[in-house]
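Workshop exercise sheet. Pairs work together: one partner reads the sequence aloud, the other fills in the structure field after running the prediction. Swap roles for the next sheet.
Pair: D.N. / O.F.
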Amino acid sequence: MVQTDGAGLDELSAAILQELALAPRNSAMSLPRLGKQLGVGVSVLMRRLSAMGRARIGGVDGPDWVRVTQSEDRWTAALTEAGRAFWVDHLSPRALCDGTCDAPG
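Structure field:
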């Protein structure tokens, strides 16, 4: 379970940001791999990633935390700069520390 510091995120959204933030070399992650790690299907991921991207849904711009791209048949997701900044401020080990620990992040 991914902890949040009151950032107003549901558990799946927080877990997506966490997985993408911890991806090797800050690289994009394939949607099937991300779904397998989180235990959800790609269609569930696509719905959530759409809400976390820059898409305008219901007249409201998304937060632009993730970018989903397709290259031929391969779909990948990666954090944007805004997504990484949100993760650092709200979900990273340092953000969740109450000031008494020396957590990396």
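Discussion prompt: The longest helix spans residues 11-21. What would you look at next?
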